Amino acid sequence: MRPWRGTTRLAALGALALAAACAPADAPSADGRKILRIAYPREIDVLNAFTSQNLVDIAFSMVEGLVTTDEHDAYVPVLAREIPTEANGLVVLNDDGTVDITWRLRENVRWHDGEPFTSADVCFTWRFVSSEGSETYNRDQYLGILDCRMPDAHTAVFTWDGEYGYYAGIFEAILPEHILGGMTTREIVDYEPYNRGPETIGTGPFKFAEWKAGEYIRVVRNEDYWRGPAYPAIDEIVWAFIPDSNTRLNALLSGAYHFGQIDPTQVPRARGLDGYDVHLISSNSFMHFDLSLNTPRARTLFGDREVRRALFHAIDRQAIADKLMEGTVRVADTPINPTSPYHDPDVRGYAFDPERARRMLDAAGWRPGSDGVREKDGTRFSFTMINRAGAADRIAIAQVIQAELADIGVEVRFETLESAAWTQRWRSRRWEAVVSAWFLPADPSLTGLYACDGPNNMTGFCDPALDETLTTSDRFLSFEERRPWLLEAQEELADATFTLPIYYNATPEVVSTAIGNYRGSGTNFGSFWNLYEWTLEP
Amino acid sequence: MGAFTLRRVLQMIPMVLGITIVLFAVIQAAPGGPEASLLATGRFIDPSVIEAYRHRLGVDQPVHIQYVRWLGAALSGDLGVSFSSTRPVIEVILERLPATLELMGTAFLFAAVVAIGLGTLSAVKQYSLADHLGTGVSFLGMAMPVFWLALLLQLVLAVRLRWLPVSGTHTVGLASAGDHLRHLVLPALVLSFRYIAGWSRYLRSSLLGVLRADFIRTARAKGLPERVVVGVHALQNALIPVVSVMALNLAGLFSGAVITETVFAWPGIGRLFVQAMLARDYPLLMGILLLGSVMVLVFNLVADLVYGVLDPRIRYE
């Protein structure tokens, strides 16, 4: 009775066969083609740069706009020959208060299907984005445009109803009029051949090749790129969708990819990786702790500015940056990133000083109660912070804040909500405190976030002076005129003390040393803004 | 048996209808809506865009109206359009189904072979080293979180030893059958582990019972070789409860493995479900859950029928 030995032998054979099938994996290039492999954190929804709800960095390999932003957050002309300014005569203020802005376009540009790129495409893009139902996230920014004229095939003139500081940055992409021109807005939003290929036609360095649902997007070299035959220097790019951050790190560690974004807490592990550099890209995004005035309890607790200041002084942001985020991030005192020329380095900061915080709360009449939590007129100093489940960094910060505020006699309770539920609660304004992050466009306007009726101001705070400064800051076109107003706005915002910037988010990017000309950028164009000049060593 | 099958199939119709109502209600009851994905990037969003988006998707309508619309379309075979990809739900699901069937099927077959071997060994050599080892492996398989096992195997087999790729279904640009198989090994292995753990336990206890039965003693008394006694007489009877458990598990073949597919970036239904859930893609969620529910009903019936085939004592009226 030995029938089982056969099974064992079979299993051993199977294991051998398996081992034989397993050769080492590397990031290879088939038949000498230079294939850039990118471990990408999510699967995107559509390739239409205007209707996509995701950050659209993949699409920018194929689709180009009038401008892009470089690694210093500065605008760089792409399909435009230059950025229109008053100085170069392309921005003209009319007597009736309207403004004519002239975009001179490059003349040798062709769409991927060979059709010439013209001013008709530019005007069409404006008509689409500004139309009802285009679902472009910043559609409101295009509504100041009254008209688009085409004096010739390579000049587009927009007439704006006033001065808008963000005018230069909004045409992030241009849509092909010859493909989408005959359709209604709704038809364009739903048009699958453009949304998912194969008709995703752009003017960019790479052409759409393939989108394998759930797996990857592949683009190939545009042989007829307008920058000349030297560009791009890479034959093919594959963005593999790897949603799990641990898997992404493992995939990079295994050498199968040239490029990938990881979590800040994973940086120490990635740093030891041979043949790769870890770049900390200061994204145009900042983590912040907001207090609200929306609920009666919030008004009782946070109505007094001195009390809010006391709370901010009790939070050790440097420790959060150094210990929690492994030293990958910089402490922030203002929303505008230090890489931006509009950044104000002199705004009031809130130094960590719990002793001072206690004194300030004492002075404001909040005295420690029997359980250690401060009280005033029968109200305990206790509030609820809403947390987004799964946002590990934010929850960790919230826990630090909770502990540090407990230390000065303030109780913080948590309510953790799933992502979509969290968003709904936040927008409904039924909350008292929150740790959250904003992703800012290259344009530094803060009006939407902090003006009294700013569409993204969910705090319930309204400071008329700040409101005035913010609104004014949007009304200047030139950097020199606009900058003082934005500096003033940043100082007033810090004084108002309802939002505490914690740190500027850094996106760690793991970049193979085989990649050349990588110039990582933290704006909404992302690090792929200059893919046309990237090189790849075999 | 034909009448029995027909009756069961007819019973499924009101059942499926009831399921759709519950699913629709539960999905809609989850806080937040499809606009959450608009807001998730942290960009400033023009609020009128959110309204336009909700209006286009029809989620600004009362829930019962939405359900009636959905049901009307579904009855004519149209499961609607996925919110996030603007493509027909059926198309999106069919596109992902092969990857899931392949992964689940491989894991299933592998698990069945190993579980039967392991379970039989454990029962025949009860309390031997092999039995203890098998029991240990089974409990480990049940207790270990799938994502943890997956990451561990990635670290050892893919990162350290570089025998296997970390994730995906093939190396783009270098696709071959061997390359594809190498990608299949880790997720299938992880997925099969839990099945192996469960099934081998069922088989062990079932076989232990059967081996003490009178007809086994008779078989041995007749002088049949042990191989035939265990392999033919005992195993066939001991497998009956195990097969029905397997048949029920088969329903999962179509709903995919949420965690395994996500960790290994495998483009199956399980991962699609997670994406749809996070994006509050109601039509896609309904499509996936409906498929899963129908499959559970179908394989329930299959399990009952298989039971009847394997065990002549069971008769259906």
Walk me through this protein's architecture:
The complex is a heterodimer of chains A (538) and B (317). Chain A is of the alpha+beta class and 538 residues long. In chain A, 28% of the residues lie in helices and 22% in strands. Chain A has helices at 4-21, 119-130, 177-180, 185-190, 192-195, 245-253, 267-271, 296-302, 305-313, 317-324, 354-363, 392-407, 419-428, 447-450, 464-473, 479-496, and strands at 35-40, 67-69, 75-77, 91-93, 99-104, 145-152, 155-160, 206-212, 216-221, 236-241, 259-261, 276-291, 330-331, 367-368, 374-376, 379-380, 382-388, 411-417, 433-439, 499-512, 515-516, 535-536. In chain A, strands 1, 8, 9, 10, 11, 12, 13, 17, 18, 19 and 20 form an eleven-stranded mixed beta sheet that branches. In chain A, a hairpin with a 2-residue loop joins strand 6 and strand 7. Chain A starts with a helix and ends with a strand. In chain B, helix 1 runs antiparallel to helix 13 (282-310), helix 7 (146-160) crosses helix 8 (177-211) and helix 10 packs antiparallel against helix 13 (282-310). Chain B has helices at 2-29, 36-40, 47-57, 63-75, 89-124, 129-143, 146-160, 177-211, 214-221, 226-250, 258-263, 269-278, 282-310. By secondary structure, chain B is mainly α. Chain B is built from 13 helices and no strands. The chains are: A alpha+beta (538), B mainly alpha (317). Chains A and B meet through helix 1, helix 4, strand 10, helix 6 and helix 13 of A and helix 2, helix 3, helix 5, helix 7 and helix 8 of B.
List keywords for this structure.
heterodimer; A: 538 residues; alpha+beta; 4-stranded antiparallel beta sheet; 16 helices; globular; disordered N terminus; B: mainly alpha; 13 helices; 74% helix
Short synopsis of the structure:
By secondary structure, chain A is α+β, with helices and mostly antiparallel strands. In chain A, 28% of the residues lie in helices and 22% in strands.
